[in-house]
Sequence to fold (110 residues):
Amino acid sequence: LTATHTVQNSSCDNIADGSIKIMPAGSTGNYDFQWSNGVTTEDNTGLLPGTYSFTITSRDQFGNMVETLSGNIIVLSDANATVWFVDADGDGFGYQTNYVWACEQPDGYV
Fold:
C-alpha cells in the first residue's frame, strides 16, 4: 500500500481554505480513510495551516483489514495574518481592545 498526495496551502494564517488530496495505490483497492480532524474521505478540505495525520486501511472483499499506511501531511500558509485595529472615528488611530487578525486590511481598520 502506497500513497501520493497534493496540498493546497491556506491563503492566510487564519483562513481555513487549505486542502489535502491523498491518492492510495496498490493492495486491494478498497480503502478506508481516517484523518486526525475526523474526516473519513480521501479529500480533506477547509483546512487551517497545520499538521494533519492520516491512516489508510486497505480491506479485502470481505471487509477484513489487509494493510494500513499512516503518515503526516503539513498544510502551510501563503501569508501571515496581521492584527488590524478598528478606527471607529476615522482619526487614523485604532482601539487596542477592538481588533481582528487578517491578511489584508479590512475597511475601517488601521
In short: The chain has a mean pLDDT of 94. The CA atoms of residues 52 and 73 lie 5 Å apart. The radius of gyration is 20 Å.
